[in-house]
């Protein structure tokens, strides 16, 4: 329900408001046609410090006045602008938001070069606008030098990928977090600075991008920062990843983290493969190399990076059509029903062998590239036969969307992936335990691919996916994976059925 004024405006007061703002909707700036009524509301709510004078009143169209609910006008306008920005995609960082603001005329420039010099415990920063000096500090653990400063947005940028090298920015912006911080910072202080580094004469931020995004929406154009002058990028990257993953209060496993870990690990992998030590190269050998080369990484960290390297190889494949439905964050959305965590516990768990292999990388027996290709092929089948029809705007009575929602719920996909693996192993006549543990680690003939395709079609065509609303399947799919799998089997979705047997 929209907020209404505590009293009705007199006609002359309405005219004064229209004289200031014009007959345009404050929410988006679009004209309000003469035949439509003009609504008036508070720009900033009284409860949040908004004045009670006409200067705090603005016109709105009827549609947006109803849509804004209890939000003050200014907050609603910011929300609409952020929704416009995020409609461009969910793989966006602070840099993308700055580009958006620059196109809107809210920011003149960003990422301008600076000249930085350090001498006698003082850091001098010169920009095209001004110059200032700051006290220089030194980390007692690493010896790295850093300083604190308040910088205008014109000289700040996001530490994103550049020149085919991954930057230190660990994740993408999230709409809810940006908007919540925007509202929070209207009345609360900023407790910690954003963190960045100096790189090629530019100040790049890798921690606190949501904070700066929220502050930008409040109109702030200067930001408190902690900036490293010189730091070992690899150690800084590992520390940053740990801060956003292992030690973060809000754990997450997003595709950007997979990308970060995969890219870092891939660079080490290439370095290992090029060693001329006369020893055959293997994935397991690389893990041993990494243990010797980087004592800071635990075995668990190394294994996590290795899995990320494999996941990224599949999700970053240009031919992977399913990847557009994988959320950049740790939560699925209406537009992107899949997450990395969901895939890691379902398709990847069943069809991607995630342990380092002893196979010689240069020998014919090494089939990791084939395994990656085969996983992409399976994901494309699921796309072409099912998710290509995904329609988040479909109503609750749309049978096709209801079926897809059931198929790709987290517990559902985890359960049927195991049944699918058993059926595909049967179709490929894999009997050995090692072969069944890595069914796609091999060359597949055109005939093999057709067999797999028929199994997938049987899975997607199972009749109970299309059950009426509020059927038993909807209750079951909220249970744990074991219960879901058992229910599927008891109702005819077995490995035998997927292989062609009668239900």
The number of helical elements comes to 20
Strand runs, count: 10
* Cα shape: flat
User: What's the structural domain tally?
Assistant: 3
Textual characterization of the structure:
- This protein has 503 residues and is an alpha+beta fold.
- The chain folds into three domains: 11-73, His-Me finger endonuclease fold, CATH 3.40.1800; 88-244, Conserved hypothetical protein from pyrococcus furiosus pfu- 392566-001, ParB domain (Alpha-Beta Complex); 320-499, no CATH class.
- The protein contains 20 helices and ten strands.
- It has helices at 11-21, 62-67, 73-86, 94-104, 175-184, 209-218, 233-244, 255-273, 283-293, 299-315, 340-344, 347-351, 368-385, 399-407, 410-427, 433-437, 446-460, 472-476, 481-490, 495-499; strands spanning 39-42, 57-60, 115-119, 122-126, 131-138, 145-152, 156-158, 194-199, 202-207, 222-230.
- The strands form two sheets. The protein has an eight-stranded mixed β-sheet.
- Strand 4 and strand 5 (131-138) form a beta hairpin.
- Helix 3 (73-86) packs antiparallel against helix 5 (175-184) and helix 15 (410-427) packs antiparallel against helix 17.
- The chain starts with 10 loop residues before the first helix and ends with a helix.
- The relative contact order is 0.06.
- The model is unreliable at 1-5 and 246-255 (pLDDT under 50).
